[in-house]
Design goal:
Helix 9 packs across helix 10. The strands form four sheets. A five-stranded mixed sheet has the order 6-5-4-7-10, sandwiched between helices. Strands 13-12-11-14-15 form a five-stranded mixed sheet, sandwiched between helices. It has three domains: 8-77, Arc Repressor Mutant, subunit A (Orthogonal Bundle), CATH 1.10.10; 82-195 and 376-394, Nucleotidyltransferase, domain 5; 204-370, Nucleotidyltransferase, domain 5 (2-Layer Sandwich). Helices cover 40% and strands 22% of the residues. The protein is globular and about 70 Å long. It is α/β, with parallel strands linked by helices. Strand 4 and strand 5 (93-100) form a beta hairpin. The structure holds zinc ion (ZN). Residues 244, 254, 256, 258, 261 line the site of zinc ion (ZN).
Length: 397
């Protein structure tokens, strides 16, 4: 049973993690800033920061303008101290990169296709790439691996469930596979949870937005929920897995057994298939991938836009379910489809205005992700960083 009280060691772990998260968000600040933001006494801050400096984790940067114009010594997380590996596994590809503790991608990322590839081959390829990356950066200390996988993902069991469009991947434990191969802590979560973690670690002010929902709109659909400073996973880890919530009880059967799942209507894969079917019928040239359709959606091309609008109606129903389930103050749309841009937001807002009261719509801010990179990829790295911030024994030079 989890202890209800907190022993001194647990408090120390908690305080260290809190300060590391603040240092990650602030880039550069003073000890007084940290005291103010954390509510911890100056003496506690001094002790912890002294430890961090002696471990080679934090460095002093010289004099900065501190509180109320007072000059203070600046401190920051050392950019070149420790690193993590971030892996984003999607239904069609995976990408791998090395990240600093401030969430910066170091060097190039490696991307490989995984269509119709068995789990063993994918794991072997991942291993080869990680080994190559580690060899190319042999001067760097890598302390953990974070992986974002397509949902549903049973967080506490470490097992990925039935994945639509992903053959032979039922009940695969990537976590134990990677741990076996690398002897490093491996943290895994589903892509939408990784996305919301990245948003709330680097972009969104958690003081201002208490409940944030990130909707991963890509080759499938899922949502990550961030509430009161942490990812909300539910009892087994599938909270927010709206891809398999039905929006049509009489709809077609999904691989998961349910009927009319949202993911059957809202995904870049289904959308591209539907558009191609329509194009074929009218004797026009089909396209290779969703990327070929982005510009045509933006220009409201008559062959493409009606299909997009129809998909947005299903998406809006899914978003409405999220609003009523979690009452978020912010909803962020990310992943592959978000590259379409403002049309997505416009369509959702139009649809919501038609089906519910203004009051319900207005309470949640709706926006696109402001990351240039895929939030789930950065979030994969942040999963690993978050873990090592809570296990500082791994962060000693
Ligand atoms: Zn389903």
């Amino acid at each position: 049973m989890e202890s209800k009280g907190k022993n001194l060691e647990a408090v120390q772990v908690m305080n260290r993690k809190l300060l590391l998260k603040l240092l990650q968000q602030n880039i550069m600040c003073s000890r007084a800033n940290l005291s103010e933001q954390s509510g911890l006494k100056q003496a506690t801050i001094t002790n912890i920061i002294n430890d961090f400096i002696s471990w080679g984790l934090v460095e002093e940067t010289g004099i900065i303008e501190g509180n109320k114009g007072r000059r203070a010594i600046g401190i920051r997380l050392k950019e070149d101290s420790f690193y993590v590996i971030g892996i984003r596994l999607s239904r069609k590809y995976f990408e791998i990169g090395i990240f600093s503790l401030t969430g910066k991608l170091i060097g190039e990322k490696c991307k490989r296709n995984v269509i119709d590839t068995s789990p063993n081959v994918v794991m072997d390829t991942m291993q080869a790439i990680i080994e190559k990356l580690a060899a190319d950066h042999s001067d760097k200390i890598i302390v953990a691996i974070g992986v974002a996988v397509p949902g549903p993902y049973y967080f506490h069991e470490g097992v990925m469930e039935t994945v639509t469009n992903f053959r032979g991947w039922k009940k695969v434990s990537i976590k134990s596979e990677l741990q076996k191969r690398f002897q490093l802590p491996v943290m895994i979560d589903h892509d939408a949870n990784a996305g919301v973690l990245a948003e709330c670690s680097f972009k969104v002010n958690p003081e201002k937005y208490r409940t944030v929902v990130y909707v991963a709109l890509g080759q499938g659909i899922g949502a990550g929920i961030f509430h009161n400073g942490e990812v909300f996973r539910g009892a087994t880890g599938i909270a927010g897995e709206i891809g398999h919530a039905s929006v049509n009880v009489n709809g077609p059967q999904c691989e998961c057994g349910n009927r009319g799942c949202l993911t059957l209507y809202v995904s870049t894969i289904t959308f591209t298939e539907n558009v191609n079917e329509a194009l074929k019928k009218s004797g026009r040239a089909t396209v290779d991938s969703f990327d070929d359709l982005i510009e045509r959606i933006q220009k409201k091309d008559a062959d493409v836009y009606p299909e997009f609008r129809s998909m947005m109606r299903y998406l809006s129903a899914g978003i409405m379910n999220l609003v009523y389930s979690y009452n978020p103050s912010m909803i962020i749309i990310g992943d592959e489809m978000s590259r379409v841009g403002v049309q997505i937001i416009e369509e959702i807002k139009d649809n919501l205005a038609q089906i519910v009261e203004r009051k319900v719509v207005d309470q949640a801010e709706l926006c696109l992700t402001s990351f240039q990179m895929d939030p789930a990829f950065i979030g994969a790295a942040e999963l690993a960083i978050d873990y090592v911030f809570g296990h500082t024994e791994l962060l000693r030079e």
